[in-house]
Amino acid sequence: MEKPHEPLQRNVDFIHDLVLECLPEQRRFLFQDSTVSYLAWMAFDGFALNLGKEADQDYDHMVEHFADMLLGPEIP
């Protein structure tokens, strides 16, 4: 039996909204999608074991977003 995806999406959306609310306006471009929120939630769900199972996730994009968040790209 496959695990339900609806609770995952609900939690990812919650984290996305929470972090977006905390970010200054000039950094919100990093959260245009839920990539970093997905990564944050999956870090608590054995994410390393699930790589490749979520066909709709672009992991290169996820890593780039996370690195941008940590290293701080130029602000447009």
Could you give a short description of this structure?
By secondary structure, this protein is mainly α. The protein is 55% helix and 0% strand.
Q: Can you describe this structure?
A:
The protein is mostly helical. The chain has one domain (6-71). It has 4 helices and no strands. Helix 1 packs across helix 2.
Helix-strand layout with pairing:
Elements: H1 6-22, H2 35-42, H3 47-50, H4 59-71
Helix pairs in contact: 1-2
What structural class should be given to the helix and strand makeup?
A: mainly alpha
Number of E-state strands? 0
Largest sheet, if any? none
Radius of gyration: 13 Å
From the structure provided, what is the oligomeric state, counting identical versus distinct chains? Answer: single chain
- Average pLDDT number: 76
What would the keywords be for this entry?
0% strand; globular; mainly alpha; 76 residues
